[in-house]
Amino acid sequence: MLKGFSVPLTPTGESALVNLPPWHYSSDCIAIEYWAEPAAIAALLPPGLKLDEKSNGRAFFWFLDWQFTGSNDELTDPARYQYREAFVLVEAVFDGTPINYCPFIFVDNDAAIARGWAQGFPKKLGSVFQTRSFAAPSAAAAPLAKGSHFGASVAAHGERLATARIQLEEKVADPSKVFNRPTVMRRYFPQLAAAHQKTAAVDELTLSLTDDLAIVDVWGGSAELRIPEVQGEDMHRIAPLRVGRGYRLGMAYSVTDLRILKDNAA
Question: What CATH number belongs to 25-263?
Answer without folding.
Answer: 2.40.400.10
